[in-house]
């Protein structure tokens, strides 16, 4: 899962071995009020405690709606829970007359660690361009948070351009706005798989993840390429997570609807019990 052997046709030298802590992230989307959010986090924490989950072996992050962030932050701090807090979006602007937007500085004050930028639902439903995604990533980084840059292709993109071409182009534009030393996470989410119940195959996810990592070598060098976590997102479930996590370039999952079901999300987080060497 954390191996770095590359099998690209360009016969490059393998990346230096770097241990990448797996990350399982739950994107709640526009679901749950602040009271429901508290209840879900409590149940999730209890469930992970019951199975003695090792957070150093697999990081767990939750991405509630903006209205839930303060409540979840207070709960995490008061109960000293090991869950990491993320936000679903951020404004590219620092402050000003941007009604409805939330600035990176506001999120940072709530102990937010990760910020989703470029989720397919923002790109498609709100017309966000690759340029806007890059500016949002820069805003998150400037306030001390780690942008989780979402990339992915539609079914039409896949047919016209083939696998990886669109995700690689999206990542290239986003990284043009980030400093060389910036930390970030990449989430590959094939749009054709999201919410469809039909996930990409582990091999498809690995092909794109490998292409993204190889491209990172060109953009940011071997060290950054080896250290950057690449997640898969799109109809992730407890029945298929082990297959994805066996892939050498897939370092975790961005989970949507299944993250709202505590028992199912807990099973996904416990993927290491199902991943074997075979």
Q: How much strand content do the residues show?
A: 5-15%
Structural class: alpha/beta
Helix percentage: 25-40%
* Tertiary shape: globular
Distance between the termini: 12 Å
Secondary-structure element series: EHEHEHEHHEHHEHEHEH
As laid out across the biggest beta sheet, the strand order is: 1-2-3-4-5-6-7-8
Rg, rounded, reads 18 Å
| Quaternary organization | single chain
Q: Uncertain segments of ≥5 residues (pLDDT<50)?
A: 1-9
Mean pLDDT across residues: 93
Largest beta-sheet characterization: 8 strands, parallel, barrel
Work out the helix count.
Answer: 10
Quantity of strands, as a count: 8
Tell me what you see in this structure.
- The protein is built from 10 helices and 8 strands.
- With 278 residues, the chain is α/β, with parallel strands linked by helices.
- It has an 8-stranded parallel beta barrel, surrounded by 5 helices.
Sum up the structure in keywords.
39% helix; globular; 278 residues; single chain
Write the layout of secondary structure elements.
Elements: E1 23-27, H1 34-50, E2 59-63, H2 69-78, E3 84-87, H3 104-108, E4 114-117, H4 120-125, H5 130-142, E5 146-151, H6 155-161, H7 165-175, E6 185-188, H8 202-227, E7 230-233, H9 241-245, E8 252-255, H10 262-269
Parallel strand pairs: 1-2, 1-8, 2-3, 3-4, 4-5, 5-6, 6-7, 7-8
Helix pairs in contact: 1-2, 1-10, 5-7, 7-8
